[in-house]
Amino acid sequence: MVKTKTKRAFTLIELLVVISIISTLIAILLPSLRKAREQARKIVCQSRLKQNALAMTMYLHTYKDMFPTEADEGGKPKNILFALDLLRPFYGPDVVGADIKVSGGTIDVLKCPADRGAFGGWLERNGTIRTPTYWQTEGRSYRFNTDALAQSHGCQVGLWNKKAPRIKQPSKVLSFYDQSAQVYYLNWDPFMEAYWHHPRENGWANVVFVDLHIDFIQLSRVNPTTGRPDARHNYQTSPNWTFLSGLNTAF
């Protein structure tokens, strides 16, 4: 009589154990992978901000240290929300215009891969939400500190019509930033909600200062030490950063 060997199969319990182990490993690894992707987006975003800052440096050399400034015939700020347009000649030979919503080539310096647009606050009440991204709705993920987030002040407090050597605290005054930084624009609380770099906390943004150093900050009215609202932390300034140029009049 010939004996036949039977192949041993997995039991249901063994299969469930394997599935459980795989599920546990996935649960452990996914947050790490998500954080790695978010960190990669932040690094690319900072790199492109740096390129904008370098373009600004060339602009300043060309225009005798004057920050991007455009005015109408009456001398009032013109197109202040899109001062980056004035940097177009300094981005590179392949750029087709900072106001054109395209991808590829040097125009990508205006696109942050972490850009998730904005909603809520004044934007939603005014029917002007920026979704799915600022890149798709405005053609840029970044903003220049033209008016210190206060158009009502006539741009006298931002970098519009200012010269770089006159800025007394270049390591503290913001120059460029992710659009997610303008969460308290015009003193609205909030002006908008933008969760680009954190799934639950509003206002995190990459920023470039006048002295060209880059930082990653949260614009908040809450003192990070006490956890409570603090008059020193408002929509325009904080102990470590400010949109205010320090010069209250244009020249």
Helix-strand blueprint:
Elements (H helix, E strand, L loop, with lengths): L11 H51 L58 H5 L8 H5 L3 E3 L29 E5 L25 E6 L4 E5 L33
Antiparallel strand pairs: 1-2, 2-3, 3-4
Overall geometry comes to elongated
The total number of structural domains is: 1
Strand fraction equals 5-15%
Alpha carbon gap, first and last residue: 107 Å
Uncertain ranges: 95-106
Q: Quick one: biggest sheet?
A: 4 strands, antiparallel
Would you tell me the overall average pLDDT?
Answer: 77
Strand tally is: 4
Secondary-structure-derived class: alpha+beta
Structure commentary:
With 251 residues, this protein is an alpha+beta fold. The protein has one domain (12-218). The chain has helices at residues 12-62, 121-125, 134-138, and strands spanning 142-144, 174-178, 204-209, 214-218. It has a four-stranded antiparallel β-sheet with strand order 1-2-3-4, covered by helices on one side. Strand 3 and strand 4 (214-218) form a beta hairpin. It is elongated, with a radius of gyration of 24 Å. The model is unreliable at 95-106 (pLDDT under 50).
Summary?
With 251 residues, the chain is of the alpha+beta class. It is 24% helix and 8% strand.
